[in-house]
Amino acid sequence: MTRSMFRCLITVFVLLAAAAAIHAQKPARDPNQPIDEEYTRKIREYTTEPFFNSPLTDYLPASPNVPTPKTVLGDIAGAPGKLPYSEEVYRYIRMLEKASPRVKVFSIGTTEEGREMIAVAVASEQLLSRLDENRARLAKLADPRTINLNDDEADKLVADSFPIYYITGTIHSTETGSPTALMELAYRLAVDDSAYVKSIRDNVVTLITPVVEVDGRDRMVDVYNWHLAHPKDNWPPLIYWGHYVAHDNNRDAIGLSLKLTRNVLNTFTGWKAQVLHDLHESVPYLYDNTIGDGPYNAWLDPILTDEWQMIGWNNVSEMTKFGMPGVFAHGNFDTWSPGYLMFIAATHNGISRLYETFGNAGADTVERTLSPSQYQRTWYRQNPPLPKTRWSQRNNNNYEETALLTTLQYFGAHSKLFLKNFYLKSKRSVLKPKNEGPAAYVLPGDDPRPGNQAELLRTMQAQGAEIHRATAPFTVVLKPGKPERPGGEATPAASPSPTSEPTPSVATTRTFPAGSYIIRMDQPYSRIVDALLDYQYWAPNDPQTEVYDDTAWTMGELANVGVVRVVDTKVLSVPMERVNGEIGAPGAVAGSGSVYLVNHNADNALVTLRYRLRDVDVDAAEEPFEAAGQKFNRGSFIIRKASLDELNSLGAELGIKIYAVPQPPAVKTHAVKAARVALMHTWLDTQNEGWWRLAFDQLHMPYAYISTQDVARDDKLKSKYDVIVFAPVGAPPASIISGMPMYGNPLPWKTTSLTPNIGKIDSTDDMRPGLDWSGLRNLQAFVQQGGVFLTVDDTASFAVNYGFTPGVTITRANRLRAVGDILRMKTVDATSPIAYGYSDSLAMYCANGPIFNLSNLADGSSGRRRSGQRATGRGTPDDPDVVQGRPPSEVPESPKAEVWEAMPLSDEQRRNEVAVIPPFERPRVVLRYGDMKDLFVSGLLDGGDEIAEHAAVIDVPSGHGHVVLFSTNPVWRGQTKGSYFLVFNAILNFDNLNAGRKVDAR
Ligand SMILES: [Zn+2]
Q: DSSP string of 618-651?
């Protein structure tokens, strides 16, 4: 044994001994440190049962110079009646920073409404003084290419480094407990001298964002304060959380549309943190849902899923030993979708974690009665919650803090293991091309939608991906025999092996032009790119029957942009250069002449262009044409009187190619106007329409924001608006009319001195009234007078049920399970302006949308009939029956129609045409669901035959206007940018939707 080996061994022993000592820390206070007597007494007073507390939180250590949360709150954390605004939380955190060298506050960005987001780091002075050098080491572990994937080098870095554990609070605004729990946790971590807490702050930097949804927090506190001021009244439900969406703010880690997602993502990746732990409050009493249930997301490193088990079970086990009931893991959360905020860590080589604790949506202490599914014992919940108990916000804070402290202690005690795993996961992400593949994703340089392509690439950049661009054409091997289609998979020929059959056919290849984008998989964040661009398959017979969320998100398909998965590793050595800066599509005016042409390719920037040229006349070509050596699609813009300078700068800014020509093309046209648009919302729920507002705002498409109550009062809608958009509500059609029940007191949603943060997006004296029958009449008059009413999913059902769309009916689904999946649509009528810019097929997001049937009769009868089997009689199943004792009579041919079409009218129906819809008012099908064989694109589809071939997007002429029905949802969670333009087409062509229409002869 050499001296150095001996020294090494000694070091190992010392380290092991130290780890064991750390891990053995007893969860108990330091008897030599005084406690804050009054604070401690209040903790016990507000905790409703002794077993709802732990040795970690049943006291508060005193400090001569560091203020407790009481300084700002006026009472302790979790006290009844105390819900601090974000500003109060921040004030306290900054007081802590001033008073303690163990606390450092960082501003991490702002919200949509301009409120600040912060992250506070708490650790020993020693660790905090070494943050920058530590980050430099973590950056190398996070990107193992910097150390040539050298494990020995990594071990040295791990030995010198300490980890970052990032905790985020109250993303869900009705889940109110975490800000005070996190204020107190920060205090404890900074002040407590117990060996247990000391071992945390000496080994881990705890990074805390106490309020993630800051806009929503302040509105929630308003509502709670209103409730305190009106103790006998019902209080208004929190209809707006963030500026755009409510609980879906925790589904944005795919599309990154919200500022809070980007701020947390940038903080997580910027700090090179190891964990992202998000706090929620919807399950009694503490559900560590990290381990969850299957199916697990298929793109994660198994090292991570093992870490989930380790940390999750330690957490449950420690709290079980404290005697705290209702602490469990597993449960019914499937771990499939990468849309959750915490999943930022899972897809970026960290560890995602989530607690559901129990809360009262406010700080009242109340009796809570649970349902059997919540209190019954299950295999994973051996010590379940109590069927009935008094519950307080303090209980909630005890659970959250105890759970976090036990987890932080465990994490700190095993920090070297988790740091090493962090390195290994990052390294295995870099090795992806050589191991599981693919080698790269390629986005072809000749994509017909360069604007949407650039937008998709910018999202990948925001996810932290490096993107390259081919500097020359290149060819890769594709799977033999596999037909090519946009977004399809390209894998190389199987290499011959002794055990397998010889490769059946010659490998095919595909050549990509110079300028094609390449996202290499030999980079640290390859995993998120693979997860987002790949296809999803959820087996219809998967044992998981309670699907938690969307099952598909394939982003190339949803963006209507070509994405090719390439397994051939040759792709990594083609000539390419790294793209620096944000990716944009090229755009400017080319050629010369006084007429300007813009190809309609359904790039979303075109709607921005139209509204930016608000005062300029723009026409749409009703047929394809060729000019300036280019092919132009139906719907292409023809602009006559515009300033060249303006078009040049708009083209460059928006990434749009504009062709100047001397003469307008000889093609039929109609005007494309900057329509006056209203987005109508209910006071029942604004969750889904929020994604529509966000899409319109991102593209600078102006709109009026109106409620069903405004429509109820306004019988001159057409004088103000050309199009009323009614996004999905998530409520039954009847409640759109009735609103909320009119029992009890009015429910105001308006700005007052008591509620300064609500009523800004929209306001009302009373949230309860709905559209009412007057609103229904006003909407119908709006359509009759020439307006376009655009409806989607459940609001399409509303339009059908309330008589807007004669001839359309909805079939109830029996077996269909299209659970947030992606299905293929086929274009039925490419001449409809709604289809402008699209090809003959489009992948769309679907969530069990309505199954439409068409009829030429107003009441929808004589709708689609599946051809019946023959009656009992002579012969084989295909034979005609024969009546005996007379010559056979001739059977007239029965009328035929496709599934998406109306049946032709029969002679009997024409005898008296009272109910026959005049030909020019018959529903016009624009898109339909694909045939069963090519309907499925991604996710979970079961019973698809029930919806296959049925109409999906229908334009129903009515009076002088139109009602547009969508069975699919074209605007969803910032992910479906490829289908947005179906909506924009309906808007821009609102007064010419009949263009290209073929009317039945009779
Ligand atoms: Zn939640």
A: EEEESS-EEETTEEE-TT-EEE-S--HHHHHHHH
Instruction: Note whether 44 and 58 are within 8 A (CB).
Output: yes
Contact 144, 523 (CB under 8 A): no
Tell me the CA–centroid distance for residue 171 and ligand 1, in Å. Answer: 7
Dist CA 923 CA 855 (whole Å): 8
Question: Nearest CA to 205 among 138, 141, 159, 273?
Answer: 273
CA distance 649 to 738: 49
Query: Per residue in 854-870, pLDDT tens?
Result: 999 999 987 555 556 78
**Cα 690 to averaged position of ligand 1 atoms, centre (Å):** 18
- Kindly give the distance from the C-alpha atom of residue 170 to the centroid of ligand 1, in angstroms, as a whole number: 8
- How many angstroms separate the alpha carbon of residue 174 from the centre of ligand 1? 8
> In the 3-class helix/strand/coil scheme, how is 27-56 assigned residue by residue?
CCCCCCCCECHHHHHHHHHHCCCHHHCCCC
Q: Identify whether the C-beta of residue 171 lies closer than 8 Å to the C-beta of residue 250.
A: yes
Distance CA 168, CA 172 (A): 11
The DSSP output letter for 868 is: P
CA distances from 170 to 94, 287, 902 (A): 19, 16, 51
Report the separation in Å between the CA atom of 548 and the middle of ligand 1, taken as the mean of its atom positions.
13
Give residue 72 CA to ligand 1 midpoint distance, Å: 26
CA of 279 to the centre of ligand 1 (A): 7
Tell me if 926 sits within 8 A of 830, measured CB to CB. Answer: no
Q: Name the residue with tokens 């500097």.
A: 471
Q: How far is the CA of 176 from the centre of ligand 1 (A)?
A: 10
The SS3 assignment for 458 reads helix
CA of 923 to the centre of ligand 1 (A): 42
| Digit-coded pLDDT (tens) for 340-354 | 999 999 999 999 999
Q: What is the DSSP letter of 475?
A: E
Q: Tell me, in angstroms, the distance from the centre of ligand 1 to residue 684's CA.
A: 19
Q: Which of 781, 778, 779, 689 has its CA nearest to residue 731?
A: 689
CA of 524 to the centre of ligand 1 (A): 30
Both tokens assigned to 595: 């007429």
Residue 537 has what DSSP assignment?
B
User: What is the CA(189)–ligand 1 centre distance, in A?
Assistant: 25
Radius of gyration of the chain (CA): 31
First to last CA, the chain: 100
Those residues with Cβ within 8 angstroms of residue 364's Cβ, 6 or more apart along the chain or in another chain? 80, 81, 393
Q: Tell me the two tokens of residue 187.
A: 């205090």
Ligand 1 center to residue 547 CA distance, Å?
Answer: 17
Q: What is the pLDDT of residues 211-248, one digit of tens each?
A: 999 999 999 999 999 999 999 999 999 999 999 999 99
Q: How far is the CA of 551 from the centre of ligand 1 (A)?
A: 19
Residues with CB under 5 A from ligand 1 (ion): 172, 175, 280
For ligand 1, the distance from its centroid to the CA atom of residue 168, given in whole angstroms, is 12
Q: Report CA(86)–ligand 1 centroid distance (Å).
A: 18
Per DSSP, the residues of 258-280 read: SHHHHHHHHHHHHHT-SEEEEEE
Give the other-Cβ count within 10 Å of 603's Cβ: 32
CA of 241 to the centre of ligand 1 (A): 12
* Helix, strand, coil abundance in the chain, percent, nearest 5: 35, 20, 50
pLDDT for 135-164, tens place per residue? 999 999 999 999 999 999 999 999 999 999
- Helix (H), strand (E), coil (C) string for 676-717: CEEEEECCCCCHHHHHHHHHHHHCCCCCEEEEHHHHHHCCCH
Q: What is the pTM of this model?
A: 0.94
Say how many Å lie between the CA of residue 603 and the centre of ligand 1: 35
Contact indicator for 320, 383 with CB cutoff of 8 Å = yes
- Taking the centre of ligand 1 as the mean of its atom positions, its distance from the CA of residue 11, in whole angstroms, is 45
